[in-house]
Design a protein that fits this description.
elongated, alpha+beta, binds zinc ion, three-stranded antiparallel beta sheet, single chain
Length: 153
């Protein structure tokens, strides 16, 4: 791909990157975790659940924090709201993964762009093909590269 084509691609990736970051910045409330319906025994010896006449059903929010799993009971009236908030969390994480993939593509394209500009500039100036030096490109002992800090004359 030519330098000009890669430049276009870079700018397109940069616009997509900006769009994604703006969407992320515009995120609303969200809650980490997932909702599960569970059936439990409450532990009271006199309860119906202890006598095998039906367990208690409720909703449970489960999430991981600092490497540990945590849960909290969600009251039934809050179910729709919490379900929406956990969906918002998952959507955000998905967007975050898209952003990471885009950033990897951006870095790779930057490297290819630099390569293309190097090749095109060398061609224009007759400086050889670039890349790994061939035997024809080996330096004469008299033309050692300047050390860092030394000026080129
Ligand atoms: Zn019970």
């Amino acid at each position: 791909m030519s330098g000009a084509a890669l430049r276009k691609r870079l700018l397109r990736l940069a616009r997509r990157h900006r769009d994604l970051v703006e969407r992320a910045a515009g995120a609303g409330p969200m809650v980490r975790g997932s909702l599960h319906r569970v059936e439990t025994r409450c532990g009271k010896p006199t309860c119906r659940c202890a006598r095998g006449r039906g367990l208690h059903r409720h909703l449970r929010l489960t999430w991981r924090a600092r490497g540990r799993s945590a849960t909290r009971r969600v009251p039934a009236p809050q179910e729709p709201a919490v379900a929406g908030l956990t969906r918002a969390w998952r959507a955000f994480r998905s967007m975050r993964r898209d952003l990471a993939a885009l950033e990897a593509e951006l870095r790779e394209t930057l490297d290819r762009y630099a390569e293309a500009l190097d090749i095109e500039s060398r061609k224009r100036l007759g400086l050889g093909a670039g890349g790994a030096p061939t035997s024809a490109d080996r330096m004469e002992p008299s033309e050692k590269p300047p050390r860092a800090g030394e000026d080129l004359v």
